[in-house]
């Protein structure tokens, strides 16, 4: 529910990716550098209350800003975790 609040689409998606990176990590303090999204774009869209097109567009925007790099269909590499964290509104580190 927290992810579908009043935040804009980019913030919601950045927060979800940041949370997935932390969930995939062995360290409680640092997100993993590379992981596969556990959900399809359609599932992410449903979870965040967005359309698939918006999820795809915002993934492209996150990649264009240098926060992430997409690898194949579901692979994500965190290029700038601090930037992704700032976009997400999270304050874990």
UniProtKB/TrEMBL annotation:
Pfam family, one: HTH_Crp_2
Organism: Altererythrobacter rubellus
SMART domains in the record: HTH_CRP
Protein's recorded name: Helix-turn-helix domain-containing protein
Domain HTH crp-type: from-to ranges: 7-82
Gene3D superfamilies noted in UniProt: Winged helix-like DNA-binding domain superfamily/Winged helix DNA-binding domain
Molecular function in Gene Ontology: DNA binding; DNA-binding transcription factor activity
InterPro entries xrefs: HTH_CRP, Tscrpt_reg_HTH_Crp-type_CS, WH-like_DNA-bd_sf, WH_DNA-bd_sf
Coiled-coil intervals, chain numbering: none
